[in-house]
Amino acid sequence: MKYFGMPMGMWVLFHGSFRRHLTSDLAVDPKDAKKITKEAKKKYREIIGKLPEFEREDRFLMNIVNCAMLGAFLLSMPKRPEVGPLTDYYANSMMTAPMRRFCQASGKKKFTEKDIESMKKTAALKAADRNPYSWNMDFYEYPDGSGYEARFTTCGICTLMRELGLYDLVPAMCRLDYTMAEAGGVTDFVREYTLASGGPYCDCGYHKKQG
Q1: For residues 187 and 115, is the Cβ–Cβ distance under 8 A?
Q2: Shortest CA distance to 75 belongs to which of 16, 160, 5, 7?
Q3: Cα–Cα distance for residue pair 32/127, rounded to 1 Å
Q4: Left, alpha or beta for 27 (phi > 0: left; psi -120 to 50: alpha)?
Q5: Helices of type H across the chain
Q6: Share of the chain above pLDDT 90, in %
């Protein structure tokens, strides 16, 4: 995958937040946080460079790029954090003001005809059949019209984090689904299983907020 484009743009948008929250969430000295960030940029470019290009229709490019960034920071830390503190660190690093606006804008489109059609196309694409760093999902609309579920049977984050030796920390990333849904303001997110915790799939249930 080429660094120039979305990967570079995501680094520009988020690396400052990832650096700041090393100090505020993981108690890293500010000087050490700068060193970690400098090293992380090198590792990030290395990770991105080893990934295949994603298909134009694949909506999950941003997901794997975010994973590469977190992985790069983790590999640059002198000591790996536990899942609990890392969960807060990742969520706080990702939920910048622009990201919150992105979630709110996405929320306004949730459950529209265009949104439903896009989910169906993603399910039919089965991108992970050709790219192990992407996702395969099935799509289910709730019969009562209260929303829908995306059920993932293959996860690119699991693939990449396993290769980086960080697979045990994947649950810290899974929690961001709740945070982003809450920021969108229109859904109640529910989940029973994740692949990272040994489940048969990752279920992402989006229920329309009542009232």
Answers
A1: no
A2: 160
A3: 39
A4: left
A5: 6-26, 30-50, 61-76, 83-94, 97-109, 113-125, 156-163, 171-174, 176-184
A6: 99
Cα 11 versus chain centre, distance: 14
- Write out pLDDT tens, residues 169-200: 999 999 999 999 999 999 999 999 999 999 99
- Tokens linked to 204: 């992402």
- Residue 211 pLDDT > 80: no
- The string of pLDDT tens digits covering residues 40-90 is 999 999 999 999 999 999 999 999 999 999 999 999 999 999 999 999 999
205 pLDDT higher than 90: yes
Chain centroid offset of residue 33 CA: 22
Q: Which residues contact 30 (CB under 8 A, 6 or more apart)?
A: 23
Closest CA to 103 of 184, 177, 176: 184
CA dihedral 49, 50, 56, 62 (to 10 degrees): -80
Distance CA(69)–CA(41), nearest Å, equals 8
Identify the pLDDT of residue 144: 97
Give the whole-angstrom CA distance, residue 2 versus residue 52. 9
Contact 30, 23 (CB under 8 A): yes
Nearest to 62 by CA among 130, 29, 13: 13
